[in-house]
From TrEMBL:
Identification of the protein by name: Ataxin 10
SUPFAM superfamilies: ARM repeat
Transmembrane segments annotated in the record for this chain: none
Listed PANTHER family: ATAXIN-10
GO CC annotation: cytosol
InterPro entries in UniProt: ARM-like, ARM-type_fold, Ataxin-10/CTR86_families
């Protein structure tokens, strides 16, 4: 798929794109370079863009004109930004949208296979930005974009969130967040790929401080179904989620904002507490080494303490006898462990 191969291929030279390219490349480049957004795109321009997209998609498996691919998505990115009219016009064009889906899928698959392919990475970045702008400007396109990114039980999106390219990770999480309707949150949490997706988001947050991955994880913590996935996650990932929960429990909530954590998640944290206390007594070596499962116990305690003082969550502790007994057991166990050797509880 290199440009040198394309230049020397007679079949490519006969392809219709070579008749369109000189004129349309110039048009796309000029439009892509514009810094203003929201201006209506003429029907003539849309017809030209459709033609380019269709040819690029039809020749994807044979040869790729990388500059044309990048320019196409730069144009779409700018056309969609702040323009519901342009976004609506584009989504009504079935030929254009089918071509866009083919190109995005091809870019994703190639990047996952070879993340060092520079031209593909540039095209993928531009395509993800265009999808993000499309969803923000035209909510009705949400399902189309969601289905494209979450194909194969979220394997594609999970791989993009784990990409070595920082911008690909950030743009992917941005698109994902903007598609997170209640139905899509439920779909994500019930899917076979939910664990891999959440692990990737937690890694992103821990390694790059991505605000989009934080926003997604916050949304998941508010959903009742997170408890079905929580214990399947690694201890490190659970600790990230507990840190987010604790942080949000300390913040002032807006009048119409949802609770920072769901009631089923809070109930799950309470039920896990006693089990974790018994784990502590068996993990002196792990405690000394800073094992994440020991860290998780401390974070569970913090979340429960904050929730018990939270005006709208403290009612969940109305019958606190079991939790009180657990808390006393925690204090006793932590005291004994702290005295026994140098470890996380000393």
């Amino acid at each position: 798929m290199s440009e040198s191969t394309i230049a020397g291929d007679e079949k490519v030279n006969r392809d219709p794109i070579c008749l369109l390219t000189p004129r349309l490349h110039s048009s796309l480049q000029e439009l892509a370079a514009l810094r203003t957004s929201g201006q209506p795109v003429s029907s003539e321009t849309w017809s030209s863009v459709e033609a380019v997209a269709q040819v690029l998609a039809s020749t994807w498996d044979e040869a790729v004109e990388w500059q044309a691919v990048a320019d196409l998505f730069r144009f779409l990115r700018n056309a969609f930004a702040g323009s519901p009219e342009n976004a609506t016009t584009a989504t009504r064009n079935e030929v254009l949208m089918q071509s866009v889906q083919t190109l995005v899928k091809g870019l994703c698959e190639l990047h996952i296979k070879d993340s060092s392919h520079a031209e593909c990475t540039v095209g993928l970045r531009c395509s993800l930005q265009s999808l993000g702008n499309l969803v923000c400007s035209h909510q009705a396109s949400e399902n189309l974009v969601w289905e494209l990114l979450t194909a194969q039980e979220y394997q594609m999106c999970t791989a993009l969130l784990s990409s070595p390219d920082v911008k690909v990770r950030q743009y992917s999480s941005m698109v994902l967040y903007n598609c997170l309707s209640p139905a899509h949150v439920e779909s994500l949490l019930s899917s076979a790929g939910s664990v891999g997706m959440i692990e990737s988001l937690a890694d992103m947050l821990a390694n790059t401080e991505s605000e989009w991955s934080l926003f997604i994880l916050e949304r998941l913590l508010q959903h009742d179904d997170l408890v079905t996935v929580f214990q399947k996650l690694s201890a490190r990932c659970r600790c990230v989620l507990l840190d987010i929960a604790a942080d949000n429990l300390t913040k002032t909530r807006g009048e119409d904002a949802p609770l920072p954590i769901s009631l089923p998640f809070l109930e799950h944290a309470q039920s896990q507490m006693l089990e974790r206390v018994w784990t502590m007594t068996k993990c002196l070596e792990a405690a000394a080494a800073g094992d994440p499962e020991i860290s998780e116990i401390c974070k569970l305690l913090k979340v429960l303490c904050l929730a018990s003082a939270h005006e709208e969550l403290k009612g969940s502790f109305a019958d606190g006898s079991e939790l009180l007994a657990t808390a006393l057991e925690v204090l006793k166990t932590v005291h004994l462990l702290g005295k026994s050797s140098e470890n996380a509880f000393t």
